[in-house]
């Protein structure tokens, strides 16, 4: 029976790699379903998970039209490393640069549950590694390096390889402006506190400084507001660059400034 | 007055003896027979092996502790059991050979009413040519199985560090030294602690680290693997372990039976039947375990060792030893009372009881060599089993011979394991894992055989702190200091 192929965001597994202990009717049917689904979708291979079963089974479509059934497969040997662009039915329309072993040794059981082994290299090796990962509850997401993973997660968000023209940086230049505003406001708060303990003439002098500082903080907020929008346009994929965030940050900063100034006016 | 004799003073035997002494009071006698004068918190040996702890930090003298507990302590090793007594007396007895200074070689027959066999394993280095002879470690590799082994391992490790500082590249090979080893966890901890220490020493780029084990997949740990659950996702310990090994740049060889060790070289056979060899400058390979070689004799002196013990030397208990092939295995095959089926006053706990079969999937190479982890019975389960067995015997003594036995089946038991991956107050890491039940129950939990809500793991600094706190906590408990009974096994 042709089954629906499980795709992201269904988690790869909540129960992983259930080893086949007995080859009963359920497993026979599962093997046939995997073959039917591979044929119907012109796929190279499927892990049982990909049609909703958690048994440790992988079926590969061979070039001669036959199928290779791998029951309880385990990769026990490896050599060399190679990075290729991979695609999988679990992440439709998406691809990632995945580093895997160039050649592998695999032990598995056949339909008679007899232990067998095979060696694979090139594209076949990569295909097998990807499918075996599924049987252990993993996608190639876990094989990506930090940068590649970050980029792939972005692709997942947009559902396409094409939408990703750049990465969303973790720090922005505009953050430095906010940092400067915060430092100014801390100095203002210290001056406000200090004015409680000094004579009136000195307190008046503090008020002068406070006014200059407030003006600086206000100006920096204006600069922040426009610069942040400019920076946001450069990183269109970045959710934290949206205008709502920028307005919110500027407003919070201005409210803090106003509170300090109100108290300063009343006390100094 | 009844007499309970406990053979072995490791985690399981010590737990059983101390609880029995507390519950029985001075009205009955508890005797502990152990060849060692010191108690050892084995999980911390890996830190001795990298120089982060001393031998004294992980051991303490048993004599004063047993004196305080009112336990009669004999520093001796058990040689044989006569569960039917002798021709002159029907009282069962155990023959022991003293190991204490001045008494070496002297023997004594100790009569008992109840016997707990908690001898632990024989470190069977001799099973792999070149790894050692009998239970003696060989000259080519090191071990962290005992505190003395760990001290020796650290001496060799420090030499390797010095060589790397002098510009000489070093190859480290750590793992299991035979196709039927258990204790992958200890080797796992050791290789990651080595990696951590050479990083600290600033010579990581001068070292090539390789893991070799009999697991069919990385992260099997002798329990058929487990899944690590976080944020609603479950990922196999295979994926977790592979990520960790890759992140720490440790290569791995799995499905391997080390069949020969030479100076600087280990030969191995893989599950696919291929042969290989791996060169090393420093190697720690865990030996396989066997029973300590206790003999058993009937009243007339006939050898009944095969009645009392399984072929691997571990004591037979209430397990199903005829479960047959993998597809027939059930959780109920595993023992729950640990009572010997032939002699009801004998029990075995910890590593000393014979498991019915492995937990991991049994596998062998096309050449017929079995290569799969054997089941772990150490740590938390061995303490729990020791306590349950002590409880059963105390009930029999205090409430009557027909008192029901206490049960502690590993198929109904969860276990927590904290595996260190580097020691340091702020830089340490450890993988904390819980697993329930230890033995997969495919009938109760179709699929993996485990309850996915109680089987999970995490790695991080907090895990290291827990591991370090547990070190002090369990030594406190073993020393029977205030509140020791409140500390769980």
Describe the model.
The complex is a heterodimer of chains A (268) and B (489). In chain A, strand 4 and strand 5 form a beta hairpin. Chain A is α+β, with helices and mostly antiparallel strands and 268 residues long. In chain A, 47% of the residues lie in helices and 21% in strands. The longest helix of chain A is centred in the C-terminal third of the chain and has 35 residues, at 200-234. Chain A has 2 domains: 25-158, Peptide deformylase (Peptide Deformylase, Alpha-Beta Complex); 173-267. Chain B has 489 residues and is α/β, with parallel strands linked by helices. Chain B has a domain at 3-123 and 290-399: 3-Layer(bba) Sandwich (FAD/NAD(P)-binding domain). Chain B has helices at residues 11-24, 45-48, 55-58, 62-69, 147-165, 184-200, 237-247, 305-308, 379-399, 461-478; strands at residues 3-7, 29-34, 38-40, 59-61, 72-82, 93-98, 107-111, 114-117, 122-123, 132-133, 136-137, 170-176, 207-212, 227-230, 233-236, 250-253, 256-262, 265-270, 275-279, 282-286, 289-290, 295-296, 346-348, 415-420, 430-435, 456-460. In chain B, helix 1 links the parallel strand 1 and strand 2 (29-34). In chain B, helix 1 (11-24) packs parallel to helix 9 (379-399). The A-B interface holds A 11-19, 21-22, 54, 72, 74-77, 105-107, 115, 117, 119, 133, 136-138, 142 and B 216-217, 224-225, 227, 232-236, 238-239, 243, 253-255, 270-274, 326-327, 361, 363-364, 366, 442, 447-448, 452.
What is the number of helices of chain B?
10
- Annotation field: number of helices of chain A: 6
Described by the principal axes of the CA atoms, the overall outline of chain B is globular
Head-to-tail CA distance between termini of chain B: 28 Å
Major β-sheet strand ordering of chain A: 1-2-3-4-5
What top-tier CATH class of the domain at 3-123 and 290-399 in chain B fits best?
Alpha Beta
Low-confidence regions of chain B: none
CATH topology of the domain at 3-123 and 290-399 in chain B: FAD/NAD(P)-binding domain
Looking at the structure, the CATH topology of the largest domain in chain A is Peptide Deformylase
Whole-number mean pLDDT of chain B = 93
Assign the CATH class of the largest domain in chain A. Alpha Beta
- The end-to-end span of chain A amounts to 82 Å
CATH architecture assignment name of the largest domain in chain A:
Alpha-Beta Complex
Number of strands of chain A: 5
